[in-house]
Specification:
single chain; about 130 residues; alpha/beta; 3-stranded parallel β-sheet; 5 helices; about 35% helix; about 25% strand
């Protein structure tokens, strides 16, 4: 999500029974999205920043503390790195068939995650379709 809004935050609350997401990955590299991502994280959940942005990221400290959450950063990748990967995929130099093992519609995500966590699910990469 590029920017949290009351509707999107409410949707996540409804889907999770008011618990929000235990792990939120933001790979956008968009400062607005990264600033707002905290709103989707459950109590004691994790916010993982995958995208890199050359700006300050800010959030409301009382909200952060109320959630008793962790914020993590992934290894850096540059825009050029992502462009190279996309180019490789577009040129069909790499088949994704073996990597994307599961797909689910957004509304089915809560049930699917429970199944994906089972050791016999053999999830490599899962796609959530909006």
């Amino acid at each position: 999500l590029v920017q949290a809004n009351e509707h999107s935050v409410q949707q996540v609350a409804e889907i999770t029974g008011g618990d929000y997401a235990t792990a939120v990955f933001d790979a956008t590299g968009n400062v607005n999205s990264m600033n707002e991502a905290l709103q989707y994280v459950a109590h004691s959940g994790q916010l993982i920043f995958v995208g890199l942005v050359k700006a300050d990221i800010t959030f409301h400290d009382p909200e952060f503390h109320k959630r008793e959450m962790s914020i993590l950063g992934s290894r850096n990748a540059t825009r050029e790195d992502f462009e190279q990967v996309l180019s490789t995929l577009r040129q069909k130099k790499l088949s994704m068939d073996g990597y994307i093992t599961h797909r689910v519609e957004f509304d089915e995500l809560p049930t699917a995650i429970d199944q994906w966590l089972l050791s016999d699910s053999h999830v490599v990469k899962a796609i959530v379709e909006l």
